[in-house]
Amino acid sequence: MTTQTTAPENTGTPAPGDAPGLIGIPAGLGRALATGGGVLTVVSTFLAWTWTAEFPGDLTVYGYPGGLQVLVLIAGALTALFGLASYGVKGLRWLVPAGADAALKFAALAAFATTWYTVVAISTKLGGVVNLEPGGYIAAAVTLIAFLGALALPFERPEPDPFDPDDTGWDQFKHTSSQNWQTVRAAFASKEPRPVRTLPSYVEILVIVAILAVALLVFTYGIGTEYDELFIGFLIVAGFGFAALHRSGLIAHATEITARHQNITVCGGFIAAACFPFTQSDDQYATLGVYILIFATVALGLNIVVGLAGLLDLGYVAFLGVGAYAAAMVSGSPSSPFDLHLPFWAAVLVGAAASLVFGVLIGAPTLRLRGDYLAIVTLGFGEIFRITANNLDGTSGPDVTNGSNGISSIPDLKILGFDLGVAHDIGGFTLGRFANYFLLMLIITAVVVLVFRRSGDSRIGRAWVAIREDETAALAMGINGFRVKLIAFAVGASLAGLAGTVQAHVTYTVTPEQYLFAGTTPPNSAFLLAAVVLGGMGTIAGPLIGAALLFLIPNKLQFLDDYQLLAFGLALVLLMRFRPEGLIANRRRKLEFHEEAEAPAVLSKTGA
Q1: Most buried residue, 54, 210, 236, 305, by most Cβ within 10 Å?
Q2: What PANTHER family is this protein classified in (predicted)?
């Protein structure tokens, strides 16, 4: 018997290496347009974009980028670098360990979005596109060309899913929309980055120093944005720029290098944070810095309860209030019912101890509950604390907290003769009141980070993770679930009280309305929980970054007025939709939410 063979029929489907891009431009031409557009974007920032200085940032100067032009310059430079790296230019291969195409698309998108936002903002504020100078038109055109060129780059398209011919029109529309979305996601996806080659220790330490310096520069620039348009532009460039660096594989390489030197990275991070007050000319932004640190420290304490032990606590801000009230009562305030003025170290111990006691008293009868029932009980505790503090005014109850007026006129701290309420000159730099408290709060944050790291790596930390993953299995293996959860509750409460002692002195006044379940201004229980989930549960850096974003962004979005919470909530919904594991996720949670992720060979005790 003979078998007849025929040549395969050409279906017109391109080979994997010749897969088309999202738009019908040849890949070679698209790459040239993206790279050239990035270079021309950089050039366009040195031109005037408008004729009048009424638009913030003074975009009228030739040869000197200002305001939003600086952000477009950065995005254009990234686009040009990734474009050159995609050609295999010698010396740039290290920029794209996971491939250049996806990174080039995000960088071009950052330049395009920032430029067109600036053009629209100028037209809206000044009354039409006639207020644009040629530089503005050139920038808008070249960024659009660069972005379209980047979209023409080839990528591996997902296999289409067949649909049932009997489906209704709506079902077919949903199927087609889902398929198109998967195609878009594949267009912006990247490959696994190649392994980092081992470098000499001193080189890796220098890389860590450079990473921390860039992080300090980005944070300082973001917190110092002087007007609304600049901050929104900063968010656009920071978001898409980070995505570009992530798709290029640089973030993965940086993570691997810092993981090899964890202690150096942590110490370097605190040194970089300590340099922040010295970069400020006044106390305006140091104020935001100290409040961010207070918020972040409390969020890190909550991360022990929620992230490690898996206990949903909706009244955690009450422990911050207990610590603040306890410290205020023994710090010499004339509104305090106790005629005490203890030194700082004693007030810290009193605040932490008071929160610890309340944590044990609340946790002992409630921690036998699980899930939603525990959440409801903790929510009730938070409200009971606020209402009780409001009623202890001498009329509805004993005069302990001075009711809704709170405890006011809390004196500034004096530590070893160093008055934190007075400006001091150090090395030619003037540190104001909030800068002094920033440095103090940084020390307390370091203590909380140390407690988190040591407890997470201890036997009790492994028991917390076991309870979080499967309480029934943990109990079957001999773990005393109630005792372990009570320890987590007590430790988390004491850390919140520790931050509360500093908060009382920073704000001068402690009132019940500062400790709500939800509100427009953090810290409150809802924002604290959002900071942990947004940043990444069970990690150290996650709650710190989440708290910084949740405090800084609402503060900068005040121009939205009544729509502030709407925009903020929409951003959280989108983030949880596309990155539910958080910004800084440990490997275990990443595998839980993304089944297609590659399973690690080894998981640490906390899954990091």
Answers
A1: 305
A2: HIGH-AFFINITY BRANCHED-CHAIN AMINO ACID TRANSPORT PROTEIN BRAE, HIGH-AFFINITY BRANCHED-CHAIN AMINO ACID TRANSPORT SYSTEM PERMEASE
